[in-house]
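In the design runs reported in the main text, the only information available to the sequence generator was the tokenized backbone. The following block is the verbatim input for one such run; it is reproduced so that readers can re-run the procedure and compare outputs position by position.
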């Protein structure tokens, strides 16, 4: 039998945790007391290491970061205090793979605090969702730029402010970036143009200023985002012209939402190059000049919003935009002209709005027979003559607004009984017609949709609960508001559309939906109140809220096509005090710990007696007896024996500023350097790398332990350094670095110290786990 031993492996050079590997062979048959003790040492230490690693399955670097986040935030989920092992005893919202944290999904958790630089230590993070935590405030850290594997970043509907860090441009794997509904200021960083994989960019509803960044000879710009499908910049304070360089035929944009800003200048003709475009919103700006004829090339656009600018020239020719469902050209400065032909030919049109457009002449009757037309709003123009709506008025038509024109008479209605408004026209001045319905101020009857509760009879709930329309039981639903930024319809009386929306929500979340009060707000967004009910019981578990919130904020939920692009604004959720068992203990881990402890006790009973005897014999035979660490708290200085403290400057100098030419080893803990002290002594210097530092107590314990273990075949600890955020150990330098002679002479004493040290670590973990 051979015992295979080495002084260190690639993970932690010179650490007692990893003395044993398959690097060197120790020959000799293991017989009698010393040989058996050696075998038992190997088995026991391997067992302790295995058990400790099994019980603590989170990488120490990630565990430290999460602990720091927990300390800096209020209202963290209750499970964030049950253990120091976020992966092994899962913390809500923490998703791990191979002991590393790969996702944080904490939507709607009611978190309070700031997003500091510690987050940059989660170097394996792929997804970060902190949406709908309104009390997360302040600037976001530049350290987010260190998360080089991040592909999804969602910080929407929080309370963040300050500038968007330029360092986000370092996230080369990012595909989804959502920062809407915060209070970000400053300009859009040009560095975002480096995100070559980005397809979703939502910066809407902030306080961003300045121009849209485009590429220059020295920097990238948004024009380089060839994979992007969504530019959502609505409701900021962006200004300057919309650069023509921003658009090209290489782009695949489908949504350009620039509404509600301070853009000036002309609409760039290059917009016509983006043939994939479906929704174009540049309304509520200060754009001037003619509408470029190239827009007529955008045959896939279904929503065109140009209202509330200062556009001039004739009404644009949109005759080739065959997919158009919604057009609003209102409140511009167009030249007086007759109604263009496309008013009557765009077969997909549902809504035509041109208010204050200076349109003159007769109103073409073909408008009213378009197969999908729902609303015609042409008030405050100069239409004249006779209004003839034709003999084939479209069945979906619900509203015609023609107030304040010059219409002198009305002929055919063909049975049209829905809203027609002609007040302010000469036709209503005649006494004989002044009392007709269309000459009266008409109050549109709100036809508000609400999910039916007819099967629930007269059931009612307390004020803070809602009635589940399927089970007819009271519960606490997850509530919020859906905002649809470009729906293809405007008629809210079509209950079939809302039934489709309910079905899509049910299929996606497997939770009963309840929707109510749909209406178009001042931004012309369709606003709908949403509630989703728990599958059983009164409350959602936190993991359910996190999953549903992520799906809504990350656009994983796809509504029916007619509803178009949306965003979600969640209401705070009233989690129950017991949190519905979301903090339950990992049963398998408890069983494993119990079995492991029982086995450990049996082993140590046998080993303890023999080890104590050997220890006493060795102490009598050797005046340099080992001193066992006292276990003082982490605030005390390490109790050293023969080791000294080094300054960081001193170690930096003796390694030539930690030059790579002096590297003699490396591992997961850090690098090992050759160094020469001022007295000429050659030493090995182990320096922990940033982000993988152990805790202060563990570092102190290691120093105390190593300063007391002395053997001619073991590297002796010369000293340590713990300043400026560094953790450095200084050892004697041994050129061959291997252990070739027998360890039997001092195995008992070394074994006892190591076992006690590991038991202290294990007991600390068990205490935190259970109490």
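Verbatim output:
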């Amino acid at each position: 039998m051979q015992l295979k031993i080495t002084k260190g492996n690639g993970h932690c050079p010179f650490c007692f945790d990893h003395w044993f590997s398959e690097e060197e062979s120790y020959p000799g048959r293991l017989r009698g007391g010393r040989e058996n003790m050696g075998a038992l040492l190997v088995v026991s230490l391997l067992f302790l290491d295995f058990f400790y690693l099994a019980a603590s399955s989170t990488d120490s670097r990630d565990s430290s970061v999460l602990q720091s986040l927990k300390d800096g935030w209020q209202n963290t989920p209750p499970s964030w205090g049950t253990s120091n092992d976020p992966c092994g005893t899962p913390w809500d919202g923490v998703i791990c793979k191979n002991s590393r944290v790969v996702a944080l999904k904490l939507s709607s958790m009611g978190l309070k605090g700031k997003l500091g630089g510690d987050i940059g230590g989660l170097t394996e993070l792929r997804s970060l969702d902190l949406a709908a935590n309104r009390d997360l405030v302040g600037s976001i850290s530049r350290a987010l730029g260190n998360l080089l594997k991040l592909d999804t970043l969602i910080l929407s509907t929080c309370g963040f402010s300050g500038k968007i860090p330029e360092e986000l441009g370092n996230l080369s794997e990012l595909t989804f970036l959502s920062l809407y509904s915060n209070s970000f200021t400053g300009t859009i960083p040009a560095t975002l143009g480096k995100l070559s994989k980005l397809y979703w960019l939502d910066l809407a509803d902030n306080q961003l200023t300045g121009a849209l960044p485009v590429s220059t000879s020295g920097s990238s710009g948004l024009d380089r985002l060839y994979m992007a499908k969504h530019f959502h910049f609505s409701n900021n304070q962006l200004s300057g012209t919309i650069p023509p360089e921003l658009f090209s035929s290489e782009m695949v944009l489908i949504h350009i939402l620039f509404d509600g800003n301070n853009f000036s200048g002309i609409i760039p003709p290059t917009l016509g190059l983006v043939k994939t475009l479906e929704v174009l919103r540049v309304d509520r700006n200060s754009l001037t000049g003619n509408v470029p004829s190239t827009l007529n090339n955008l045959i896939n656009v279904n929503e065109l919003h140009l209202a509330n600018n200062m556009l001039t020239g004739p009404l644009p020719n949109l005759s080739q935009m065959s997919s158009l469902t919604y057009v609003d050209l209102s409140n511009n400065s167009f030249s007086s002209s007759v109604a263009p032909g496309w008013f009557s030919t765009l077969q997909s049109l549902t809504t035509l709005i041109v208010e204050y457009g200076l349109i003159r002449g007769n109103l073409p009757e073909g408008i009213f027979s378009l197969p999908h037309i729902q609303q015609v709003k042409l008030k405050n123009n100069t239409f004249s003559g006779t209004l003839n709506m034709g003999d084939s008025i479209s069945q979906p038509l619900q509203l015609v607004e023609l107030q304040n024109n010059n219409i002198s008479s009305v002929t055919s209605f063909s049975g049209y009984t829905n809203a027609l408004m002609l007040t302010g026209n000469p036709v209503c001045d005649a006494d004989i017609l002044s009392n007709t319905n269309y000459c009266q101020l008409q109050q549109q009857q709100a036809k508000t949709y609400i999910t039916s509760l007819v099967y629930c009879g007269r059931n009612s709930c307390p004020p803070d609960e809602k009635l589940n329309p399927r089970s007819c039981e009271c519960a606490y639903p997850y509530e919020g508001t859906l905002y649809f930024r470009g729906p293809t319809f405007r008629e809210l009386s079509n209950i079939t559309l809302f039934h489709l929306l309910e079905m899509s929500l049910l299929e996606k979340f497997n939770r009963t939906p309840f929707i109510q009060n749909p209406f178009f707000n001042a931004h012309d967004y369709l606003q709908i109140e949403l509630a989703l009910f728990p599958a059983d019981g009164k409350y959602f578990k936190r993991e359910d809220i996190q999953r549903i919130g992520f799906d809504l904020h990350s656009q994983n939920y796809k509504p029916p096509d007619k509803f178009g692009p949306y965003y979600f604004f969640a209401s705070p959720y009233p989690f129950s005090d017991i949190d519905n068992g979301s903090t339950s203990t990992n049963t398998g881990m408890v069983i494993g710990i119990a079995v492991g402890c029982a086995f450990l006790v049996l082993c140590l009973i046998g080993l303890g007696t023999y080890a104590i005897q050997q220890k006493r014999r060795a102490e009598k035979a050797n005046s340099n007896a080992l001193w066992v660490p006292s276990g003082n708290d982490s605030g005390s200085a390490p109790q050293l024996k023969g080791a000294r403290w080094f300054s960081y400057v001193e170690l930096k100098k003796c390694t030539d500023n930690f030059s790579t030419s002096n590297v003699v080893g490396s591992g997961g803990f850090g690098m090992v350097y050759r160094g020469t002290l001022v007295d000429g002594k050659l030493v090995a210097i182990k320096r922990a790398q940033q982000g993988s530092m152990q805790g202060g107590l563990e570092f102190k314990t290691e120093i105390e332990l190593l300063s007391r273990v002395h053997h001619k075949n073991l590297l002796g600890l010369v000293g340590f350094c713990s300043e400026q955020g560094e953790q450095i150990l200084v050892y004697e330098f041994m050129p061959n670095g291997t252990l070739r002679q027998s360890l039997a002479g001092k195995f008992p004493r070394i074994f006892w110290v190591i076992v006690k040290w590991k038991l202290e670590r294990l007991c600390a973990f068990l205490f935190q786990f259970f109490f």
